[in-house]
Write a structure and sequence with these properties.
The complex is a heterodimer of chains A (111) and B (113). Chain A is mainly β. Chain A contains no helices and eleven strands. In chain A, the strands form two sheets. In chain A, strands 2, 4, 5, 6, 9, 10 and 11 form a seven-stranded mixed sheet that branches. A four-stranded antiparallel sheet of chain A has the order 1-3-8-7, with no helix packed on it. The termini of chain A are far apart. Chain B is an all-beta fold. Chain B contains no helices and eleven strands. Chain B is globular. The chains are: A mainly beta (111), B mainly beta (113).
């Protein structure tokens, strides 16, 4: 059983397209996150949700929109994709103040 | 607010040598500290964590880390490096009431045969 699963794992798309990445966790955690990892491996928090409510919204272009239909799911929708959006996007979840568990990542390449 | 600093973005060791990856933290409240490992093309996997119990924490794959409050450090060590330890290592901090994890910039470990 995968604890945090995200799909798709690989995504190649053209500039200007809209795409979504889905994430589900079966750990019963209250908090879910989206992180972006750039080519230098730097991990940047994008969003954090607690019980479906947005609690962290870092400086991210408004082309990125998270959606949490329930506390086990946090999807990421990206509009009008740009070359600079190419990165690895990680979904993660955690209970408050405890270990954060990551999904396997979604490798997004914009061409 | 919390933050972590990892000194050395790249560390190379010979196989069988000591591994030492440095992490210093800043936190206005007692921190919870973590080390994660990322193998190529994979997600991040928990190596070990400190949550205010024993200051010397043992993790998977022979790694351990010691919480030193006086030095605000949480360095990761392994007595003898193995080729399979080559990966990216991240230090992270949160608090017992926190829902925000702050990650360091990562240290890439190379193991030389």
């Amino acid at each position: 059983d995968t604890a945090v699963s995200q799909t798709p794992k690989y995504l190649v798309t053209q500039m200007g397209n809209d795409k979504s990445i889905k994430c589900e966790q079966n750990l019963g955690h209250d908090t879910m996150y989206w992180y972006k990892q750039d080519s230098k491996k730097f991990l940047k928090i994008m969003f954090s949700y607690n019980n479906k409510e947005l609690i962290i919204n870092e400086t991210v272009p408004n082309r990125f929109s998270p959606k949490s239909p329930d506390k086990a799911h946090l999807n990421l929708h990206i509009n009008s994709l740009e070359l600079g959006d190419s990165a690895v996007y990680f979904c993660a979840s955690s209970p408050i103040g405890n270990t954060i568990y990551f999904g396997e990542g979604s490798w997004l390449t914009v061409v | 607010a919390q933050s972590v600093t990892q000194l050395g973005s790249h560390v190379s060791v010979s196989e069988g040598a000591l591994v030492l990856l440095r992490c210093n933290y800043s936190s206005s409240v007692p921190p919870y500290l973590f080390w994660y490992v990322q193998y190529p093309n994979q997600g991040l996997q928990l190596l070990l964590k400190y949550t205010s119990a024993a200051t010397l924490v043992k993790g998977i794959n022979g790694f351990e880390a010691e919480f030193k409050k006086s030095e605000t450090s949480f360095h990761l060590t392994k007595p003898s490096a193995h080729m399979s330890d080559a990966a990216e290592y991240f230090c992270a901090v949160t608090t017992n009431t926190g829902n925000q994890f702050y990650f360091g910039t990562g240290t890439s470990l190379t193991v030389i045969p």
